[in-house]
Amino acid sequence: RKRDPILVAKHVTRTFGGINAVDVEYLEVPRHKITALIGPNGAGKTTFFNLLTGFDQPNSGEWTFDGTSLAGVPSYKVARMGMVRTFQLTKVMGKLKVIENMRLGATKQEGEKLSKALFKNVWGGREKEITRHADGLLEKFKLDTKREDYAASLSGGQRKLLEMARALMADPKLVMLDEPMAGVNPALTQSLLDHIRNLKSEGMTVLFVEHDMHMVRNIADWVVVMAEGKIVAEGPPAEVMKDQAVIDAYLGAH
Ligand code: ATP
User: Fold this and answer.
1) pLDDT reading at 111 higher than 50
2) Ligand 1 centroid, distance to 41 Cα (angstroms)
3) What are the protein's UniProt keywords (predicted)?
4) pLDDT band at residue 80, thresholds of 50, 70 and 90?
């Protein structure tokens, strides 16, 4: 079968001072699969996410999402095109209610327009439909009882769930999650893993950053290992874990 990756990155580099934070020669993200991006602290995983999603600009490189070049495309347009992400430290808006956070996920607006979206008629007559979509997702993520609560009152794990649910308001094809399980209690971790599996069964592609190699074993179809900005190994989880370069680059740092 012909390969049909949803995302292809070539020669993507980013330096900070003298450090090559990201130096990715080539990466394909397989469509309709769950791919884990793992690597030690400072490997460049978050920086790579930032570059791919328009939150940071590379020194060089090109990448395509679903065949369209994304170099220079601002983050809000990347999201509008169907590639959404979450953050290691969640960016839910604490002073807004849970349901309001969800609605913002559907506005696909830029910067300050986003906050005005709540107060102006930017929904184009879609408000009922958007609210229905939001309520469906809140129920699925078991946040429906928190609907009218301010996001600031949620636990860390619930914020992760809210951010993931909000990202889905954009009807994405590719969902990129930066350490979705970090700082989440064991019960919610299980539920997050289930949600990630569900995204795949609903036809989405998932790329997620995870620190713990053992966490990815049961969920990832494909594992990409990053160290010092470079991709040092990739493959199915069982194979990658046997790879000496991975053990050196990854486990050696622990
Ligand atoms: P972690 O698992 O700790 O999140 P990571 O793999 O996501 O690590 P990055 O956060 O991408 O790694 O960092 C890669 C390198 O780039 C590190 O050396 C980091 O110090 C450096 N770096 C990242 N962002 C900046 C910045 N804004 N300014 C300067 N250096 C940065």
Assistant:
1) no
2) 8
3) ATP-binding, Nucleotide-binding, Transport
4) confident
In the beta sheet, which residues pair with residue 19? 16
Alpha-carbon dihedral angle through residues 68, 69, 72, 78, given to the nearest 10 degrees: 30
244 vs 8: which has the higher pLDDT: 8
130, two tokens: 């958007």
> Is ligand 1 within 6 A of the CB of residue 57?
no
Ligand 1 centroid to Cα of residue 180, in Å, is 17
Q: What is the pLDDT of residues 202-250, one digit of tens each?
A: 999 999 999 877 788 889 999 999 999 999 999 999 998 888 777 777 7
Are 214 and 251 contacting, i.e. CB atoms less than 8 angstroms apart? Answer: no
Considering only CA atoms, which residue is closest to atom 23 of ligand 1? 47
Query: Which ligand 1 atom minimizes the distance to the CA of 44?
Result: 11
The Cα 192–Cα 62 span in angstroms is 32
* Average predicted confidence (pLDDT) for the chain: 88
Distance in Å from the first CA to the final CA of the chain = 39
**89 pocket-lining for ligand 1 (C-beta < 6 Å):** no
Specify whether the CB–CB gap between 19 and 226 falls below 8 A.
Answer: no
Q: What is the pTM of this model?
A: 0.90
- At residue 113, the pLDDT reads 54
Q: Look up the ipTM and state it.
A: 0.94
Residues 6+ apart with CB under 8 A from 204: 32, 172, 173, 174, 175
Q: Of all protein residues, whose CA lies closest to atom 11 belonging to ligand 1?
A: 44
Closest ligand 1 atom number to CA of residue 211: 2
